[in-house]
Design the sequence.
C-alpha cells in the first residue's frame, strides 16, 4: 500500500474553521508536501460527497488515504492530531 494524500474536511464559517485552516497552513509550512494535503469544504458538492463516502460526521476531520482511496488512518472532531503524527503517514 502506497500513501497518496491527506484530506482535511471542514465546514467554513464554523467554530473550528480557523483551526482547520491554520492547521493546514502551518503543516504545509513545516513539511514539504508536494500537494499531498488538501483542505476540503463540506459545503461544496465534492466535499459533501467525500464526507459521505468516508462516513464523516464530525468536523474538522483528517483522512490519511492510500493510493487506492482506502483510509489508512483518520482523526475526527475538534481535537486535531499532532502534525508529526500525520506527517508520519506522508513519509512511509
Sequence:
Amino acid at each position: 500500500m502506497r500513501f497518496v494524500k491527506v484530506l482535511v474536511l471542514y465546514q467554513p464559517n464554523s467554530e473550528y474553521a480557523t483551526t482547520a485552516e491554520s492547521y493546514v497552513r502551518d503543516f504545509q509550512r513545516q513539511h514539504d508536501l508536494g500537494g499531498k494535503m488538501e483542505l476540503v469544504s463540506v459545503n461544496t458538492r465534492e466535499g459533501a460527497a467525500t464526507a459521505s463516502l468516508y462516513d464523516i460526521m464530525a468536523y474538522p476531520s483528517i483522512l490519511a488515504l492510500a493510493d487506492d482511496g482506502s483510509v489508512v488512518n483518520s482523526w475526527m472532531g475538534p481535537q486535531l492530531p499532532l502534525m508529526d503524527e500525520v506527517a508520519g503517514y506522508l513519509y512511509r
